[in-house]
Amino acid sequence: MSPGPVSVEAPALDIDALIDDPATQIVVCCGSGGVGKTTTAAALGLRAAESGRKVVVLTIDPARRLAQSLGLTELDNTPRPVSDIDASAGGSLHAMMLDMKRTFDEVVIAHSEPGKAEQILANPFYQAVSSSFAGTQEYMAMEKLGQLKASAGTEAAPWDLIVVDTPPSRSALDFLDAPNRLGSFLDGRFIRLLTAPAKAGGRAGLKVFGVGVQLVTSTMTKVLGGQMLADVQTFVSALDTMFGGFRERADATYRLLSEHGTAFLVVAAPERDALREASYFVERLDADGMPLAGLVVNRIGRVSATGVTPSRALAAAESLEEGGGPKSASNAAGLLRLHASLVRTAERQRELADRFSRSHPGIPVVHVPALGRDVHDLDGLRAIGHALAGS
Amino acid sequence: MTTDPDAAPWARARLHVVTGKGGTGKTTVASAIALALASTPGHVLLTEVEGRQGISQTFDVPPLGTEETRIVRLPRGGEVVGLSIEPKAALLEYLQLFYKLGRAGKLLEKFGAIDFATTIAPGVRDVLLIGKIYEANRRRRDGKHKGEAPPVYDGIVLDAPPTGRIGRFLSVNSEVADLARVGPIASQAGSITRLLESRRTVVHVVTLLEEMPVQETLEAIDELRAKGLHPGAVIVNMVREPLLDDTALEQARSGRLHKASIRTQLGEAGVPATPELVDGLLEEARDHAQRIDLERQQLALLESTGLPIVSLPALPGGVDSGSVRELADLLVPLFVRHGATPVGTDLGSDLRTNVHTQVSAHVGADVGTDVGTDRFEA
């Protein structure tokens, strides 16, 4: 008996079924940089709102024009209602841009005593951590998602669906790893080492760690300089009181992501690198038991003409050019060459997308055609939403 | 007319930092620049700092580790050495080098100090990554970091973080210098800042002729300039030449391409001119014309930076180690200074002569040459 086909046609991703299902409460759009995650998130949010959902879109770092299309003119870390949407189905749309420094500041203020909060906010080490270090954006996106979810359903926060765009990370996986990394750091011996002197009121506290501690602190002092280490110690001990809450919330948000009600959409461009990154992500979501809704392959090349193969078009173009006919002959040749290159590009893109589907059978896929221009307004987002829904 | 690599902003550069928005092909371009610099012949280090293994995928070699490994050998002894810099290894190496730590290194690791320094502590991760490049830049052939011996590397190319993070990445040393006001980290951060702000370091920005990458490119260039860093070339990647002339594009845009005569010509060439085909072709032509318009607007924005603009063609079959060499050959005339005798990176590709005309450089007022703002061919 001959074996059956190994490749399986990828099932179609039904975006409308996903966003119309009231059980869907969080949609996370992830993928590598430059694939159109933010636009996809915004288009999806608009489509859901216009079909009756009450939606908030959390964008991380939108292009200016995309932000303008949602009516976001400033980065103020608060969901703002988007006007001019079609609310006839009873839906609404809010949108916000994440300000990671402000989110961090708010966490500090909300969870420490007034005097202590000021002390933390003024610490140079805190200022650096909260504004520039790798990973803060991911922690804060997770924190913000938790806040949006916690406040959902109130009058000021009417949403029942949160659409999240993920930060333009080094790797798409950073978003998932950030809370764990924070957790393991907070549990680590090093942080206890740093906080020990403050807790025990002096160096005596270090004794609990036994030999080696002196060596470690003296090395740290030597390498970092005493001042920086002192700043770090002040920062860590000041933050110590709120660390627990911080970690619990990050853990809770992480659990939320793996629950029924959350859907991950992996977004990719039809290119080798972006699809490879999408593969990593899909495998990781699976390993973590995170609910994957499907893959969006963005910006597939558009082909309008039918009835001639690329090789036939090129042969015809060549004979027209050789014939040395009128201007219309060279124009026709140009059109045929253009068509051949469009078809070949689209074929290569489909082949790359198919290769993904062969190695990840069963994952629903939708192909979104390339638009001529970037999105500048709600109509552009609607067009993308339309394409996402496969119509 | 030829481009004068001696007058380009990167004429005195030893460290070529390559950034760009995700998806613009910065790893491919960084690889091509490394090959071009190695063609003189030279000994060039090509590094990545984000653990993506983009370099090994581009050259189709096994994944790079934290050891410097030769990945390409060129005629006459030029070579490209690859390195994937990893912060933990860089920190341990750094501690060993400067403090002869021995047991303390292991202890630091055990106490989580290494994790702390490389993942949580602000900026330290980036300082370590750049610090490793700084070290490689200073290393001499006798293994020392000062003295008369010639440097190990004739040039270093860094496949850097994307445009959104490049300013912060390159200025992290001055930030850390503020945090650690004294101590060896502070003084090393100072030396690194001096290297990065000197003419020995240049930052090339890779873009496509699309709105978002161009916008990010302009923002990155402003940021780099504000931080006292030196932008080099704007490298426009994956450029496709128009398949219609300007008159035909204008007609296609306004729907005035003459349908009947197109139909006749298709018939002459033996292609059955069904309405689906003809209407489809005209629609494709209109999309094409609109795209070319958009690209020209974007190019004009890039030209307003006054930086040299280098255009690289789209590779029909995608990127592989052979096509990177083709791109490198296009870059040789722009990156190899007079007096050096490039030998080419591949051994005579036919494509080279065809695509040469697609590489053009535009050296603006920024470098103070007499070439004005004309566009000219390489």
SSE map:
The complex is a heterodimer of chains A (391) and B (378).
Chain A: H1 15-20, E1 26-30, H2 37-50, E2 54-59, H3 64-69, E3 80-81, E4 92-97, H4 100-111, H5 114-122, H6 124-132, H7 136-151, E5 161-165, H8 174-187, H9 189-200, H10 213-224, H11 226-258, E6 262-268, H12 272-287, E7 292-300, H13 310-323, H14 327-359, E8 365-369, H15 378-388
Parallel strand pairs in A: 1-5, 1-6, 2-4, 2-5, 6-7, 7-8
Antiparallel strand pairs in A: 3-4
Chain B: E1 15-20, H1 26-38, E2 43-48, H2 54-59, E3 69-73, E4 79-84, H3 87-99, H4 103-110, H5 113-120, H6 124-138, E5 155-159, H7 163-179, H8 184-197, E6 201-207, H9 211-226, E7 231-239, H10 246-253, H11 259-268, H12 275-303, E8 309-313, H13 321-335, H14 350-356, E9 360-361, E10 376-377
Parallel strand pairs in B: 1-5, 1-6, 2-4, 2-5, 6-7, 7-8
Antiparallel strand pairs in B: 3-4, 9-10
Helix pairs in contact in B: 1-13, 3-5, 3-6, 5-6, 6-7, 6-8, 7-8, 7-9, 9-12, 10-12
